[in-house]
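Quick bug: ABC transporter ATP-binding protein output formatted oddly.
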Amino acid sequence: MLLNVQNLNVMIPTQGGPLHAVQDVSFSVSKGETLCIVGESGCGKSVTALSLLGLLPKSAKRSASRMTFDGQDMITMSDKQIRALRGNRLSMIFQEPMTALNPLHTLGRQLTDVYMAHRRGNREAARQRAVYLLERVGIAKAAERLGQYPHELSGGLRQRVVIAMALMCEPELIVADEPTTALDVTIQAELLRLLAELQKSMGLGMIMITHDLGLVSRIADRVVVMYAGQVIENALAKELFENPKHPYTRALLGSVPDPSHPRMQPLPSIPGTVPSLVQKMEGCHFRDRCAFASEECRVPIPLVGVGAEHVARCIKTGAQAPNARSTAP
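Here's what came back:
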């Protein structure tokens, strides 16, 4: 097992009170595996990712019963040890390439700086590595691109540079935080194929953070569904899409457009709004929006096994409707 996270919690102080952004989140990733973390905006996906790389705000409080990378305890790591890991064996692809790249430095400078920070070698060796990776990610005339600045490239090319930067030190695990959200559909498809090819050829583990269930169905080995700071379902991808157990997961799947459905038929939607994470909420976080909720759902609900390698945070999995598309009231 490459990464093992158990009972991760992140609390961020705010003027309105403590914001419990991540609550008792657990998952693991093996070498060569793709784990997709899905959920709507504000559910804690990105905060979970940032906590792995030690990039949380200084005011944030992180705790976990276990958090290891290749057997190393990440909880007790010093800032220096985390920096040595980040960008080296554990790397991240950010959502918006224009903010991930420094507009004041050339692409070559930024790529080689990553290499020089973690590897013993000269600038020429770093430059050769940068040219090689830019070619691997499909950028023509790679050597010439090293002298360019981020604003001189299109959004798709900038994201390819960010991917190359994440690969500079041959990481074992990449965290990709919605890496194609700001790009058009054609470029998205190209970059996703590229990531899949690179992962297979390099044996990378990957955590893909997204709200795109179509993407998840194509690339995931395992899926973690988050809602309001909690993991509400965790299963192998095939099992999750064929046999979702939590009402929220079913409602998410039900909201995906289906070309076989009659035209002009409204898509199912989930009523209500996501609860505030300021002050800790007891019981099921989804209960106010769930058609199956009862008084029993007001007590703390653990993740329970509902199948082989399949857990869900729900006490009424057996009472749910049989069709994933019929659960959103």
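Actually, after a second look the formatting is fine. The radius of gyration is 21 Å. Closing.
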